[in-house]
Structures are given as C-alpha cells and as structure tokens.
Amino acid sequence: MANLSPSQRAKLEALWRSMPEKMRAALRATTKAAAASDPASAALDTIFSELEEAMRPPAGDMAKAYVLAPLRPLVGDSALIPPSRFRFSAEDLSKIWGWMGRHLAKDMVETAKKCKRPERDPIWFDFRRQAGAALADAVHKADRVPKDMTALLKRFGGEGRAMLSDAIILLNNCEQIASAMGQLPDKIEDFDDELSLLVKQLHEEMVESNAEAALWVLLLTMGRLESPWQIFRVVKRIGRRDDDLVVQKTELAAVGDAVLGDTGYFAARLKQPPQTLEEAKACYLVFDRFVAFSTGMAAEFGIRKDGRWGRALFGLRAEASTNVEKILAKVPLALDAGLPEPRRGRSGRVIPAQIPPAAAVDKADGLLYFLGKCRVHATAAAIASTQKRIADAAEKRMQEAGEMLVDLVASSEGQNRTTAQDGLDITIRLMESAGHDEAASLLRRRGVAATAA
C-alpha cells in the first residue's frame, strides 16, 4: 500500500470496512494459506493485514497495559496475596508509566499510544524492550548520582531500586520469557514429572545466555502452581541434589527463599483473632495453607535443620504455633461472653442467664469453628495438647449449658420459656460450629421434646 496515494488508500480502506466481517476473514485466511508459496498472495496478505490494522482504534490508554504486560502476573496487593505472586503494585506501574511518559521514553510512549496493532503483535516486544532500556539507563544514572537516587527512592519508596531492577529484567527479556511461559499451563494443579522436566529444559535453554531471565521462568512457574512448594521438584533436577546443602548457596536459593516468604506470609496472617464465623473460615484457610507450605516444603526437598532454610522454617513454625495458640486461648473468654450459661443456685434451682449480645455470639461462633477445624493440623502445627485441652473444656461447658437450658425450657412458661429457648438455640449453634454435630442434634431433639411437654 506504500505506492498508493492518500486518496486511493482511503478508498481501499472504505471498501474494506464495507465488507462483512466473515468475508474479510475468509479473504485473509485464503491469502495467508497461500502466502508461503505464492508471492502475489503474500503481497495481498500484507495489504489485508494493513487494512485490518487501519480499522482498529489506536491503543491509547491501553498502551500502558500492553507495554507493561510482562509485569502483570506479579501485580497485586501485598496484603492480600503471598510474596511470590507480588512484586509490583498498581501504583508502581502507574508511576513507571508516568516517569517514562514525562521523562525517560516520551517518544516510545507516544508511539505506543498511536499503535493500532493488537497486544499479541511482536511490535509490543520492541516497545517493552525500549521501556526496559530506558529504565535501566535511569537506574544506572541514579546509581552514580546520589541526588538522582534520592529522587528515585522518593518516587518509588525504599524498595524502589530493587523493584525497578526486577521490572528491567522482565521487560528486557520479555520475548524469551513469554516464549517459555507460553509452553506451560496458566494453572498447574500437579507439577508432575513431565512438566517439571519441561521447566528444567526451558531453564537450561535460557540460563547460559541470561541467568536472571532463566530464574524468573522458575519464579513465574511457581506462581502458576496450585501447590507452590512443588517448585522444588524442578530445583532438584536443576541442582542435581535433593537437599539444600549446596542449592541454597546458588542462584536457585531465590526459589527456596520465595517458598519461605510465602510460608512466612501465612504465619504472620494468623496474628489477628477472628471476630465472626466468616473471619474464622478465612483464618482457618490461612492456617491450612501455612501447614501445607511448611510440610510441603520439607516433603519435597531435603531441608536440613541446621541449614539456613531449616532454621528459618523452624522459626516460622514456632511463630505460627504461637499465633494459633493465642487465638485458641481466647475461646474461654469468648464463651464467657457469648454462651448463655445458666447456673444452679444453692437450692439446685437453675438460674437463667441473659441472652448475650449478637456480636459476642458471633465471636464465640467463629472461635469455636476455628478451634474445631484446627484439630486436623494440631499435630503438624505442634498445638495438639493446647487444642485438645481447650476443645474438651469448651465442649463440656456447652454440653452442661445445653442440659440446663433444656430443663429451663421444660419448666418455664411465657417469656421465660422463650428466653430459655433462644439460649438453647444459641448453644446448639455454637456446638455445631465447634463440630459437635451429633451432640447438637441430640440437644435440639431434647429441646423440641421439652417444648412439647
């Protein structure tokens, strides 16, 4: 189309636009199929591609997302996702894009905004490499000029230098990394031998020419694993060892550190006791994930107790155990506030308790749920004795309260009976949350019988 006048080009584009989409697609498919063996078809395919591009709107504001696409798998909120899947915040990307648009790569940004080609087009790899080169120049200059480094850290925060270094690697090696990651599933439920061998091969193909990019293939693969600790399966293949004696002293240590980082993330999130049943369910999922990480890491790889990883893992297990025990220690106090426990007077008569506030019941509900669910991992998390002691005491209190409330339902009338029934319903709810379904069901049947008596 280069030989066409503007008027001829406009007419041709208008004709192309007037065609039905199916007709355009058929013409493109026909010429593309014959392009390899027929020069005329190849020329037509080029023309049709240019006409199709002319119909598209320019990238505009989407240019930011297209250029910074290599960073996308690692963008998120550090409070909501584990460290292995977080390296950049949305704000970081906005600052990087703004910095390039205003200072570092104005021409590239403007050209990218005007580009009409889809994100999958190779031209975007060129834009990304230009962005990486511009960032690398800026960081290199900041390393040599203190005031520039001060400005950089002011713009991006204390970890800005390290964050930009990762962005530079991902942008400069975007095509290689994208080619490697394109051979793997987006989500990997089981990192089997076939997949781990493939990742080893991808790593080896890249490591000679670019060790930093090869490492990112491993880290990005970890981010796709349903069980991230399984990344050690490929670490064993690459390092030719099944323990951490040598591996933790090589570049592969970054992979183990990433698994440890995730383990620590889940351990730290156990510090806040749940206030409701929904919070307790979320808290238990965190606990479950922590146990999976800490046991999975040891199961997949030889973690020596006296090694760096072993000492770190031991510390995280101790932290998690302490955090969970602190949560469990709140169960008795929660029952004091949320369980409508009657008491027996000196005469033996049952004295009813007031119905507790809804918030107190909700808190007891959540803590009892967490207490009951914790039993599954009690041994693995070294909290077995604490969990059993508190669970047994809680069950005894709820059972005794339930029995007295049944007596109150049977012996009361009017509002007193209604209050006793409400208290019994709360007690049954708490027993069910703690996992005592059979005892709760029996208590419910006894309450129905008492009401009918």
Helical segment tally? 22
The SSE string, one letter per element, is HHHHHHHHHHHHHHHHHHEEHHHH
Number of strands: 2
Q: Which stretches are poorly predicted, pLDDT < 50 over at least 5 residues?
A: none
Radius of gyration using CA atoms only: 32 Å
Distance between the termini: 94 Å
Helix content: over 70%
For the biggest sheet, the summary is: 2 strands, antiparallel
Mean pLDDT: 89
* Strand order across the largest sheet: 1-2
Report the structural category: mainly alpha
How many separate structural domains? Answer: 4
Roughly what fraction of the amino acids lie in strands? under 5%
Write structural notes for this entry:
With 453 residues, the chain is mostly helical. It has four domains: 6-55, no CATH class; 62-172, no CATH class; 179-328, no CATH class; 331-452, no CATH class. It has helices spanning 6-18, 21-34, 39-55, 62-67, 90-104, 106-114, 123-144, 146-156, 160-172, 174-181, 193-207, 211-224, 232-239, 244-247, 253-268, 277-300, 308-328, 331-338, 358-374, 384-411, 414-433, 437-452, and strands at residues 343-344, 350-351. A two-stranded antiparallel ribbon has the order 1-2. It is elongated.
How do the strands and helices of this protein lay out in sequence?
Elements (H helix, E strand, L loop, with lengths): L5 H13 L2 H14 L4 H17 L6 H6 L22 H15 L1 H9 L8 H22 L1 H11 L3 H13 L1 H8 L11 H15 L3 H14 L7 H8 L4 H4 L5 H16 L8 H24 L7 H21 L2 H8 L4 E2 L5 E2 L6 H17 L9 H28 L2 H20 L3 H16 L1
Antiparallel strand pairs: 1-2
Helix pairs in contact: 1-3, 2-3, 5-6, 7-8, 7-9, 10-12, 11-12, 11-13, 15-16, 15-17, 16-19, 18-19, 19-20, 19-21, 20-21, 20-22, 21-22
